[in-house]
Amino acid sequence: MVFLFLLVGCPVALYAMGGSPIPDRIPSWEEVHTTLMRQDTDQSVFLATMFLICWGAWCLFIVTVCAEAINYLAGRSRPTVPRTVLPLQHLVRDLVATATLTFSAAASLATSTSASAAAHTHAATEIHNASVPELGSHHQSSPRQDTPPKDPTEPEWTPLLADEPPAQPKPDQAAWQTHVVKRGDTLWDLARRTYGSGDQYPEIFKNSRAIDQPDGLPALTDPDILHPGQRIRLPRPSAPHDAATPSRTTPPNTAAPSAPPGQDKPNGSPAPTLPRSTSDESTAAQVPSPVVAPPADHSATPPRPTPHDRDDPHSPLAISLPSGSRIGLGLAGALSVAVAATRLHRRRRRPLNTDPGSYGSTTEPPLPAPVLKSRQAHMSTYADQGALTPSDPELVRENLLAAEPDHLVTGTRDGQAVTISLPGLALGLSGDGAHAAARAITTELLSKSRRYRAEIVIPRTDAQALFPGADITGLAAALEGLVLTPSLNEGIEHLEAELLHRNRLRQMAELPDVPALRIDDPAEPLPTVLLVATAPAHDAATMYNSATVHALTTLGRRYSIGALLLGAWAAGTSLDLASDGTVTDANGPDAGQFTRARLFHLTADDAADMLQTIQAAAGIEAHVPAPTVSTGTPAPESAISLIPPPRPFTEDHQAPARLQVLGPVLLHAADRPITSGLRTCAKQLLAYLALHPKGVTRDQTVGALWPDLTPESAVMQFNTATTNIRKVLRAATGLTEPKYILHTAGHYRIDPDLIDVDLWQLTTTLMDAERATDDTERINALTPVSDLYIGGFASGLEYEWADAHREYLRRVVVDALGHLVQLTQEEQPDRALATLERAITHDPYSEPLYRDVMHLQARLSRPDAVRRTYQLLASRLDEIEADPNEDTHQLMATLSRPKPCVQDIGGSTD
């Protein structure tokens, strides 16, 4: 009634009392001046002014009503309006919502009554074909006998009454309704319940991205992450006659013919087998913790479990290491970047070796086996997605653009990611697996702590308890993001000071929180801060610390500060963990997120190895003894002995096929590359056999190439690769009799009479240089090296043996080219300079190469070129967050000075 009076009664009353507000003519200036200047004895001017104000207020009311009605029906939040209009907007919003709910409820009752009357006048079959299920009614007609019952674990469906569809929607009408996300909802389940198939969830995501979310909730930007309270758009249930959108009464399995177990669907995609998520009607304050995400793959089919997580076939997000550790792809990716940065720093420092008998020799410690396993698992994700494998510089450059970590995947539940929000985190871990789980979380954040992205504040005693085998002091010196404090009191004081500092910045900038500060001033260091410490006990001695930590975590959501505590934590969420990371008990506001979850966990030895690599990635190598346990990978120093030339190459010999393994693996026939037909497993086998020209057994091959497959599957993969190689080469060369891959005495090898290998040609050249008796002969032998080495060994293959030989061959080639420069720089400085430039293309971070270039440029009287070379080196090293050595800087300053002219007594200059 109030809404009806304001909408219709007000203008009628104003018109009856004061007439129309629109004048019949425009008064002249003299009439306006006379009216305003004379005394208002009859109150006519006052009353006219009040009538105009009332008409203006009513017009503003009508505009606000229209805006709120449009926003309500479109599912958008209210727009920003001036502060003076907010009370009116709130009143209109409540009135519009009340009126809409009232009329929609009446329509729902009318629809239900008409449907009930129709049930008495039509046959049962007609009712089933024509009836539409009521969304807002609790009473439904009984389903048919062949309709499967509703799954009790399916989340309750509660759309707004105002969003009910009409009885007979038009087929060409895009009918969507607003749904409020509940805890446990996923786009996959919602698509399955509306479309009849979860494969359609990208359609829901696409139509929901533009929706304005309620205050305090983030926008929908990732289909894998939903927050309770977010709004999304779902297709309205249509009548059975409408084939555009299947009805909700259609069982999910009838959307398409189901494939038998173990077979594929008709379209070639594997039949999905996803666990059903449960609903939780509890609400979350402010920004709720994200619920379990749908499948991580954004394609139309759910992701296929990767081989490196065979113990958890429903989770492609976890990696199991041989030691028993279980980590996530986030930590594996960070370690992959650390390995790349470590290699680049080692290249920068490595001096050239010009001894032909020991090209490529190195004394650098090997990378730890857990780190290499983690890197291999991460790099294999690129192949699983059909993407190109990035190089070490590309990985490091991409990591430079990474933002502050605000969320972290800490485990899996039912094969899906369990994510925590670091700002405002108040998580306590207890039980046998508490330290291992905290170790995994802390290690991942430490790997992201450079460039002021993350900061870990940890008391020294807790750091030693978490990482007993690591050099935690050396790590703190290498990482600016690791803050060791003498005790918990100093750690709390550090967080209090940081919170006050951020609060002052926020107030000066008049911004709401730290994320807004980062956007406003990206140069201000505002890392995500996490306190890792033993939970303070609830007694009189530590009551202040307990209350302070609780206050810091309460305010931490705004200031990007959180706490991970070792022990039960009653003020936040507390988890009890088994030794394998399984959550056995959960209490607190976010307990439902961790129910049935299994957290990632790290052993102390694996964590020490990973921290060693993280420290080396900062450019500071930790002096630790080499591991005594063999990893099964041949030492890089022995690679040259594994690839001797099977025969000398002659000009008149021309094999029908040629194998390229320097750069991408590629077969050539008739001087043309074979671009189709060769499978990935065949390329892997060819690269491995190229490293073993004398042959290798099948067991050795499958152990190196496919270690994660079962023995039967690995043998089948080997046979498939061999068959594919022979078939492709026979078709390309026209020679159908040869086998190309020989099998003699239990060993498989490439037939050298039919396939030339570029790697063997390079090895022959290097051996000729080693056997040379004088400099001229050695120069002739080393000259073809730069033309033969066109790229890294088998680029794109990510195996430990491939990485080892790739690094080794790169060092060998750079040393050989450096030796060629040494032999030619006296008589042919320009040729030596061109050779150095070719060497820099293969190793763009090697300071010794740049120093040799500057020496030659100075000899050729090019001081400007010396400075440009130094600037090029500085820009290259800046990509890996390093600076040129002080000796290199002094060399540039010395060589770039102009040489003084010397004048003799006779007046001539020299």
Describe the structure.
Residues 133-175, 212-321, 346-370 are annotated as: Disordered. Keywords: Membrane, Transmembrane, Transmembrane helix. Residues 243-257, 284-296 have a biased composition (Low complexity). This protein is elongated. With 910 residues, the chain is of the alpha/beta class. α24 packs across α26 and α28 (847-859) runs antiparallel to α29. The relative contact order is 0.06. A hairpin with a 5-residue loop joins β12 and β13. Helix content is 44%, strand content 10%. It has a 7-stranded mixed beta sheet, sandwiched between helices. A 4-stranded mixed beta sheet has the order 17-16-15-21. The chain folds into 4 domains: 2-101, no CATH class; 307-617, Rossmann fold; 636-778, Orthogonal Bundle (Arc Repressor Mutant, subunit A), CATH 1.10.10; 804-895, Serine Threonine Protein Phosphatase 5, Tetratricopeptide repeat, CATH 1.25.40.10. The protein starts with a helix and ends in a 15-residue tail after the last helix.
Topology of helices and strands:
Blueprint: H1 2-18, H2 29-37, H3 44-74, H4 86-121, H5 124-130, E1 176-180, H6 187-194, H7 201-208, E2 231-235, E3 318-320, E4 326-328, H8 329-349, H9 369-384, H10 392-400, E5 407-413, E6 416-421, E7 426-431, H11 434-447, E8 454-459, H12 460-466, H13 472-478, E9 482-485, H14 488-509, H15 514-520, E10 528-534, H16 543-559, E11 561-566, E12 573-577, E13 583-587, H17 591-594, E14 598-599, H18 604-617, H19 639-642, E15 657-660, E16 666-669, E17 672-673, H20 680-690, E18 696-697, H21 698-705, H22 711-733, E19 741-744, E20 747-750, E21 755-757, H23 758-771, H24 775-782, H25 785-788, H26 800-824, H27 829-842, H28 847-859, H29 863-878, H30 886-895
Parallel strand pairs: 7-11, 7-12, 8-9, 8-10, 10-11, 15-21
Antiparallel strand pairs: 1-2, 3-4, 5-6, 5-14, 12-13, 15-16, 16-17, 18-20, 19-20
Helix pairs in contact: 1-3, 3-4, 6-7, 8-9, 8-10, 8-11, 8-18, 11-18, 14-16, 20-22, 21-22, 23-24, 24-26, 26-27, 27-28, 28-29, 28-30, 29-30
InterPro entries: AfsR-DnrI-RedD_regulator (IPR051677), BTAD (IPR005158), LysM (IPR018392), LysM_dom_sf (IPR036779), TPR-like_helical_dom_sf (IPR011990), WH-like_DNA-bd_sf (IPR036388)
Biased composition (Polar residues): 355-364
Region (Disordered): 133-175, 212-321, 346-370
